[in-house]
Each structure stands twice: as structure tokens, then as C-alpha cells.
Amino acid sequence: MSKKGGKQTETGRKVHVPCKRAKVEASCPSSPMNYDSPDRVFESLIFPIEQEKFFKEYWEQKPLLIQRDDPSVAAYYQSLFQLMDLKELSSQGLYYGRDVNICRCVNGKKKVLNKDGKVNYMLLKRDFDQKKGTIQFHQPQRFKDELWRIQEKLECYFGSLVGSNVYITPPGSQGLPPHYDDVEVFILQLEGEKHWRLYKPTVHLAREYNVESEDRIGNPTHEFILKPGDLLYFPRGTIHQADTPLGGSYSTHVTISTYQNNSWGDFLLDAIPGLVFDTAKEDVDLRTSIPRQLLMVDIADSTRRLSSFLRSLADRLENTKELRSSDMKKDFIMNRLPPFLGNSSDPLAPGGKLPKLDSKIRLQFKDHAIITVEPDQDSSDELRKEMVYVYHSLKNRRERHMMGNEDDDASEEGISETHGLRFPLSHMDALKQIWRSATVDVKKLSLKSDAEKENLVLSLWAECLIEVI
Asked: For the whole model, what pTM was predicted?
């Protein structure tokens, strides 16, 4: 789902590529979404269910069906994506596999009807009409502004990547066999109706996608029809299948998904190596050699010794204020959507007053930036000193969101590019001041010299992370 790699921008380095502001598409129906904050976006997505009730009773536990019967919500949902959108998008250059799949469930198996190369809309529509294939359109937020707006706010809300796929299925057809996913799923019904069947999980909170046979899954625990404006949530691992009923029109829905590889187990795998590394600096027992031939055969008493080390690490963890993430934080920030910035076509570039020693500043885009401590990535010395890195997603490319290796330019330009700044470890307290305060006087920053204070705020201002007020 997410990839690693990229470049960092050092302190004081000039910004060469300003972030572009998004253009909002042509007028759309009045939105039922409240965009005042990420919290409000999620609140309006699951309305009328309250957030506290949702996380207490449904999240990772059981499905939630919200049937609204509200024409205004139905009209808004329909504006998010329609079959006719594919005609225009195909003319911009879509490719089978990367952007579009067309498939059908035949005798409990997925039959892929893809052709090679670019998508020809007329041929795609013919397979849709005549072969009853379901069109799966990958990551529509790359093209549809309103989905970008929703998913960017949801990434802020969850602190996890949020992807989406559109499924368009002709009447009397089913695209996929019964299966379960490794993501939390929110389904918004956009056009037509869809018949859904959900089944008891065989693997709770599954970590991978898997197809299940009809004779294994038993009877549905839930069965219903989704109509435009309805929303369905179910946890990862929930077995499901869906078809478009005969006698009606085609069905279009968008699946918004999140929390892939975002469990406590994943976080432990990410954080424990750093904890062990730091502890070994102070604990000589962790630096003693393992028994001879332990890597070749099982050695008696090794399990007990490992258990003792783990208990010591747990004790140290109890007194650790900040747990260092090796990759997950950076992976999230470098692969997420850039901010949705409204209908201005002006680029996001440093603006307003230049910060000086007597300036008062405030942080911008806090949800899109992180501070980490890492070994100096630009040093070739074996004993690399630690540096503070500020990473942000303000210059991330929307068109690459959730596309991984499928991007045509990935081999030439790098799969993902990390944008940010590097500072000495002595700058950490000053950065925390900026991050934790509504406003900060530059001259009161926790740095020894006025030059350091000015250099810090100028670097952040050049990356559009602060503004002078």
C-alpha cells in the first residue's frame, strides 16, 4: 500500500517547486459534509450516528448500515463519481490494470476482462453492457476534487492513509466473489441499487485479502439493498459479496478504505527496533554475544534469556515519554494526500511577511507535518549523530496517491519523495514550542543565538509551515 524512499530538503535550502492549489470542479449539489475540521468531516460522514457510539459499538466489531432516504444526500453522493465521468477521464489517458479493471464473478471466481494498454471508453462500455463486467476504477481522488477533499480530511482524522475505489456494476451481475479485505471499509452508494450480503468473519481483523468459497461462509448475517445516499461500514475481515439486481439500472458505489497495516502489531514491529537500539547503548547485557551456534540450532535457555530482555524493555518502555517510529510516521507523511486548499489556482508558496527576530509566528498545516529524530542521513560516518527532521506532505503529488509502483514516472523520479527539513538536535525544544503553541514570539524561541532563531523560522516559512501574524 505504501512505499519508501525519497529526498529531504536541508535547512536553508531554497524551495524550487511550490505546491499548487487545487481547482474545485464545476458546481455540485449542496454538500452534507462539514469541512470545518477533520473531526466534523467524519461526524457528517456517519451522521446521524454519533462518533462515540460508532467507536464503542461498531469500529472493528460489527457492520453499520445507514439508510438515509434523503434526496439531497443522494444528489451529493451522485456528484462524487458517475459512469459518465469515465468517458472524460478515458480521454485523458487511463490504463488497464493501473487505473481500471473490468471483471465479473463467474462460478465463484473472479474473471478479469482487461485489455492491454490504454482504455478505450467505447470498448470498455461494450464489455460493461455485453459481457456484464464490473468496472473498478482505482483511486478516483486523483481526479475528483470532492473525493480528494473528503479523503485528505479523513487522513488527518485517522492518522492513516485513506484510499478509494469506484465499482460500477451492470444489472444482473456481480463483479467479485465472496471475500474479505485487510482494511476498514466505508461504502457510499452513488447511483442505482446494490444487493449486499455480509457473513461472519473466518479471520477477525484480517491482515490480508482473501477469497472465500460459498460452502465455507454459511448463511449471511446481514442482507440488504443499498440505495443512493446510503452508507455501509464493516471491519476488516468481514466476508462480503454484492450484486446489482435485475430489472433496474447499473449500480455505482465508492469504497473508502483505511487502516491497512496500522495495528498495534505493525507499530510494535516499527518501534521496537529503535527501543532496543537505544537501550543497548546503556545496558551492557544487551551487548553481550549470543551463544555459539544459536543461529544454527536451538540452544537451551535462550528463550528464557529473551523473555528476560523483553521484560527489561517493557520496564524501560513504561518510563519512555516518546516512542520512536522507524518508518510508519515517515511512510504515512510521504504517501498521503496533500492539503485540499480550495478554489484558488495560485500556487502554495511562501507569502506574507518575511519572519524576523521581532515577529510573531504560528504553525500552518499542523496535521500535515511531523517531527522525528533520526541518524544524520547525509553523513557517511559509521557513528552518525542524531538530527531532527521535519517532514511534511504539502508538496505531495495528488496523482500518485495510493498508486505505489503503478505510476509510469516512478522509475525515473522515485516512487515517493520526502519533503522536509533537517536541524541539529539542539533545535528540538524550539520546534516543540512552535508545534504546541497557538502563536510564538521568534525572540522567545529556545535557542542560544538570534541567528539560529531566524534561520529556523526562515526555513519553516520557506516550506509554507509557518506564517507571520
From this structure: 0.89
